[in-house]
C-alpha cells in the first residue's frame, strides 16, 4: 500500500476539503491510503477519514506558536518521513512551503505542490512571501499540480507549466449525486416552505471576501424589488456571516433570505434552487461551479471565475464592473430555463470522480 501524506485540510468544509474527500473516498484503500498533516485541532471530515483508515497528525500552527511549530515539523518528519514516498501539499498560496522543505530534508522523494487559487487571500505580507517562495519552488517540489491553468500561473513559472511534471487535476465530483431529481427538488422545497411559483437563487461558499456575499445580497435586493416571488438561499459559514445578516436586516429582506449554515448534503439542496450565483472576486476552479452544472442549474459567474469551469453551456459570465441592477436583469433573463440532466456532459469533460480518481490512483501507485 502507498501511504500519501496530504497537507491542506482545514477545519472548514470548503472547496479544497471537498476536493480532497471526493478523491479520497474513491481510492482503493488496499493500493493508496491518505494520511493528513494539519495545524488545526480538528479538521473537517476527521471522523470519516479515520473510519476510512487514514491517520490525522496534528501539529502547532506557525503564526501563534512558531518555535513549537518548527519543533513539531522536525519531530514529525524525523519519526515518520521514512513512511512516506509522497507528500501532496494543497494550498491557495505559496506563502508557506515549509512542508516541502522538511519533506525534502527527511527523504520524501515525491513532493507535490497543488495550486487551488489565483490570488493571495490573506494580505500583503503573505503575498510577498508567495512571490519569494515562487522563485525557489523548484528546489523543494518535484511535481506541480493545479486545478486550472489560471491557478497554475499563480504558482508556477512558464518553464514549469511547459514541463512534464506539471499536471491539471480536475475538481471532479460524484456526478450521480448531483443529477437533477424532481422528487428531491419537491421534497427540499417543501422543507423550505417554498411553493413552485417561487424562484430560488442559491449560493454555496464560506462567508469570506473572496466569495463576495455583499454583492450577492445587493443583486438579490435589486431582483426582489422587481420580482417579489424570489428567495435567496445561502449555504456556508464564516467570519462575515454576521455582517451579511445585518445587511439583510437593513435592506428589509429578512423574510426572503435563508441562511442555511454548513450542510453535508449540498447536492440535495441544489435541487431546490433555480439558479446559482457565483460573483467571486477570484477563484482557481470552484468545485461548486461543477456541482451546480451537474445539478442542471444555470450559473451566473463573475469573469474572475476561470473559463475552464464552463464545462457545459449552463455557465454564464458577467463582469463585476457591472452594477447589481444589471446583474439582476441578467438573472431575470434566465428565469424561464428548464432543468435537464447534464451528467453525460460532466463525464465527457473529465469531471466525474469515479474516472478521475482511478487516474490519480495510478499516478500515486506509479510513484512507488
How large is the share of residues in beta strands?
A: 15-25%
CATH fold field value of the largest domain: Rossmann fold
**CATH architecture annotation name of the largest domain:** 3-Layer(aba) Sandwich
How much helix, percentage-wise, in residues?
Answer: 40-55%
Summed over residues and divided by their number, the pLDDT gives a mean of 95
CATH superfamily annotation of the largest domain: Glycogen Phosphorylase B
Detail the poorly predicted runs.
none
User: With helices defined by DSSP (H or I, 4 residues minimum), what is the helix count?
Assistant: 16
Radius of gyration: 21 Å
| Text of the CATH class of the largest domain | Alpha Beta
Structural class: alpha/beta
Measure the end-to-end span.
9 Å
Q: Say how many strands there are.
A: 13
Question: Major sheet, described briefly?
Answer: 7 strands, parallel
Gross morphology is globular
Oligomeric state: single chain
Main sheet: which strands, in order across? 3-2-1-4-5-6-7
Domain count, please report it: 2
Amino acid at each position: 500500500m502507498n501511504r500519501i501524506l496530504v497537507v491542506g485540510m482545514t477545519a472548514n468544509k470548503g472547496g479544497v476539503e471537498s476536493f480532497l474527500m471526493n478523491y479520497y473516498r474513491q481510492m482503493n484503500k488496499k493500493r493508496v491510503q491518505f494520511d493528513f498533516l494539519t495545524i488545526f485541532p480538528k479538521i473537517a471530515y476527521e471522523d470519516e477519514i479515520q473510519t476510512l483508515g487514514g491517520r490525522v497528525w496534528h501539529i502547532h500552527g506557525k503564526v501563534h506558536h512558531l518555535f513549537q511549530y518548527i519543533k513539531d515539523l522536525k519531530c514529525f518528519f524525523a519519526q515518520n518521513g521514512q513512511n512516506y514516498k509522497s507528500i501532496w501539499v494543497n494550498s491557495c498560496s505559496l506563502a508557506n512551503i515549509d512542508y516541502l522543505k522538511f519533506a525534502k530534508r527527511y527523504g520524501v522523494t515525491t513532493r507535490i505542490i497543488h495550486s487551488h487559487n489565483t490570488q493571495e487571500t490573506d494580505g500583503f505580507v503573505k503575498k510577498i512571501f508567495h512571490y519569494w517562495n515562487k522563485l525557489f519552488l523548484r528546489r523543494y517540489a518535484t511535481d506541480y499540480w493545479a486545478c486550472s491553468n489560471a491557478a497554475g500561473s499563480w504558482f508556477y513559472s512558464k518553464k514549469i507549466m511547459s514541463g512534464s511534471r506539471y499536471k491539471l487535476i480536475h475538481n471532479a465530483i460524484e456526478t450521480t449525486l448531483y443529477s437533477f431529481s424532481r422528487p428531491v427538488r419537491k421534497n427540499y422545497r417543501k422543507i423550505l416552505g417554498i411553493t413552485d411559483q417561487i424562484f430560488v437563487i442559491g449560493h454555496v461558499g464560506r462567508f469570506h471576501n473572496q466569495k463576495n456575499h455583499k454583492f450577492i445580497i445587493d443583486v438579490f435586493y435589486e431582483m426582489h424589488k422587481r420580482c417579489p416571488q424570489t428567495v435567496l438561499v445561502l449555504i456556508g459559514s464564516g467570519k462575515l456571516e454576521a455582517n451579511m445578516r445585518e445587511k439583510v436586516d437593513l435592506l428589509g429582506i429578512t423574510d426572503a433570505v435563508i441562511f442555511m449554515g454548513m450542510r453535508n448534503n449540498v447536492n440535495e439542496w441544489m435541487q431546490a434552487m433555480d439558479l446559482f450565483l457565483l460573483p467571486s472576486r477570484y477563484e482557481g476552479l470552484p468545485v461548486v461551479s461543477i456541482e451546480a452544472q451537474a445539478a442542471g442549474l444555470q450559473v451566473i459567474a463573475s469573469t474572475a471565475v476561470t473559463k475552464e469551469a464552463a464545462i457545459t453551456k449552463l455557465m454564464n459570465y458577467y463582469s463585476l464592473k457591472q452594477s447589481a441592477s444589471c446583474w439582476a436583469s441578467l438573472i431575470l433573463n434566465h428565469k424561464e430555463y428548464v432543468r435537464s440532466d447534464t451528467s453525460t456532459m460532466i463525464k465527457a469533460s473529465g469531471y466525474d470522480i469515479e474516472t478521475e480518481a482511478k487516474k490519480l490512483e495510478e499516478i500515486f501507485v506509479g510513484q512507488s
